[in-house]
Amino acid sequence: MITRMNYIEILKKYRNVPLVKLLAGIRRCGKSTILEMLRDDLLSGGIAPDHIIEMRYTSEMFADGTTHREMYDNIREKMTDDDRYYLLLDEVQEIDGWEKAVNSLLEEGNTDIYVTGSNSKLMSGEISTYLSGRYIQIPVYTLSFAEYLEFKKTSGKSQKELLNDYIRQGGFPITAISDFDEASVYQIVEGIYHSVITNDITKRHNIANFDLFNRIVKYIVENVGKTFSANAIVKFLKSEGRSLSVESVYNYLEWLEKAFVIYRCRRYDLQGKAVLKTQEKFYLADASLKYCMLGFNPKSIAAMLENIVYFELLRKGYEVFIGKYETKEIDFTAVRRDERIYVQVCRNLPEDSDREIANLLELKDHYPKYIVTVDELAKGNINGIKIVYLADFLLMNDY
Asked: Whole-prediction pTM value?
């Protein structure tokens, strides 16, 4: 097992803190494995095996009609003394009302609780009722490039080759752990995608016109990294002779977000210092989701480079926006507490860089400014703007 130390360190920080630790992310991004790593870390720290209670709620044994009361009773009967128990509960959203069981276990027992989930049921309104102020959400993403290199350290490939593989094949752990060819990777990811769509969206929301829903998903995938609105989707569908309300499009977008398939990046007015409500961008949980649906196209690589940089900024704890400065756009304005960085993503230098440099030069503050490119020879500094090779940017500890 390859340890994803970043997550273990985060969980260590919250160990024995009286909060439910909620690990949430798209299916197969590695949440269950992180719980296994946590178990091993607890054991190596001297926690008795019988004081680590692991429950997985995806099998029929637990997921088919189990109530939150049965969930509670089943766990409580394993707690035979007053010492602390560590509860590792996987895919809890399969149990209706799981929040009530977890809240009771938190209040009544000497417990440290960790739960995972893959869809909106995990973050239902019941949490605010039963766990208000008593949980911390820890987002789990597919592999970072640093983690991908760790998975592939025995591959014999150069870092440049592995960066190319990472761009084209994404970072789902299940595809990175073995030496699959590209076609097999896309086939595996397509299976993950259909599992998400079937289990977390279609069944839950009773989508009747599955073909229309799939067309909207395809539109979003085709337009990753571009600004568009629900109205734009409605107009596009109308041009194809299909009809759907703006409200329905909003619902579809929300359901895809809550299943962690897409992530919304809002626009931020750098002059007015306000988040804007129009012309957002959406990014995919993993680049491979686009290629498994549409095939790999070198012309689309620029948008997916943005996709990769966006998630690296999220992993490092930034809140990420599209920056708007007058009529100009900054790909990413990333904010973390009182820190801020600006990032433009550019495929090639110098031909693609003039706009990016000009836009960044318009910003008169002294926060760090970067142009990130896949041109490994294009490194340096232009009027305070750092030109950074993509691999180097992804492997930086901080900016």
From this structure: 0.94
